[in-house]
Amino acid sequence: MKNLFITAAFLSIIFTSCDSNDNETTNTTESTLVTSSNTSGKITYLDLLSASPMVKSFTVASLDAEGISYNSDTDAIIVASRTNNKLETYTGIKNAIKAGTDNLVLSFSSLGSEFTNARETAVSGDIVVVAQDQLASNGMVNKLFVYKKTSSGFTLAKTFTTDFKLWGIHINGNDLYAVADLTSDIVLFKDYMSNATGTITATKRVTIAGLVRTHGITYSAADDTMILTDVGSATSGTDGGLVIIKNFSSVFSSTMAAGTIALTNQIRVYGPNSLLGNPVDVAYDQVAKKIYVAERLNAGGEVLTYAYPTMSGDFAPTNIRLEAGVTSVFVLRK
Length: 334
Prior knowledge:
This protein is mainly beta. About 5% of the residues lie in helices and about 45% in strands. It contains two helices and 26 strands. It has helices spanning about 95-100, 250-255, and strands spanning about 30-35, 40-45, 55-60, 65-70, 75-80, 85-90, 105-110, 120-125, 125-130, 145-150, 155-160, 165-170, 175-180, 185-190, 200, 205-210, 215-220, 225-230, 240-245, 260, 265-270, 280-285, 290-295, 300-305, 320, 325-334. A hairpin with a 4-residue loop joins β10 and β11 (about 155-160). The longest helix is centred in the first third of the chain and has 7 residues, at about 95-100. The protein is globular and about 50 Å long. Residues about 1-25 have low confidence and may be disordered.
C-alpha cells in the first residue's frame, strides 16, 4: 500500500520527533505509532524518533482489524480480528522492516471465536480486554472479554456483560474506563477484575457536556489527562471533535454519578479546520504533546496528528496521512 501525504497551506507535512517539554525530563529510547484498518488487511508501523520517519505497511491475516497495540520488548502487535473473531499476535516487525518484508506471519491467536463485532482492545501487562458491540451475530449482547496472554496464546479469563453499547475502552491500573456508544457518556468500572463473570455494574457513569457520540478514549496518568473523540453524526464528515479534560481525576471525582462534566472543564477541538468527521480512535503522547486520531470517514481514512491544545478552538492537524479504513491508533513511548 502506498503511503500518501496530503499538503495544504495551513498544514505542516513533516513528522516532528518526540521530545520533552520545558518542564519534563525523559530518557526516551523508543516512540512508535501503529494503526489498523478494517478494509485493507494491513497494519502500519512508524518510528517517531527516526530522523526520517517512514511509514511501514504490512499485510496481516485479517482484512478487518480493530484495537491495535504494540509491545517493543516482544516486538509484537496485537489486534482484535473482526475477520476471524480472534485476538491475533504478529511478531518480528523490526526484522521484517530490515528484511524489506511486506507481510507478517500470524504467530498465535486465541483458540476460539468467543467474540464478534469487536470494537476496541485495552492492554495492561498480560491482560487484554476486548470490547464487543452488539450485533445480530452475537445475540445483540454488549460484552467485555478478558484474556490473559502467554508466550503461546491467549486464555479467556472472564467475560462481563454490559447494559450499554460498547466502543472505546481504556485500562488505568485496576480500573477500566469505557465509552457508552450512541451517548455522550463515559463509564468507570473500578477494580473491574474483582468482579465475577456475568453482568458488570458501572461504578460511575457521567455525561460529557456538548459531546454528541463518544467513540475513542485514552487516558494519561502521567499528566492526568483524559481525551475523548466525538463522531457526531455517522454520516457527517464535518461534525466530529476532540474533548480534552485536564486534571481528570479531580474533575471526575467531583462529578456526581449521572452528573455532567461541564464545558468549562473541557478543551474542545471542533470545526472545519480540524478535519474531524468520524474520529473513531485516539492516542496521546504526553511527552511530545501530540494527539493522534483515526479519522474513519473523510478521504476513506486518515491518521491525523494534532499539537496538544491549550485552549478550545478549530485547530488544523499538523499532519495528515491517508490510511484506508483506519480503525485504531496506538502510541508506545519508552
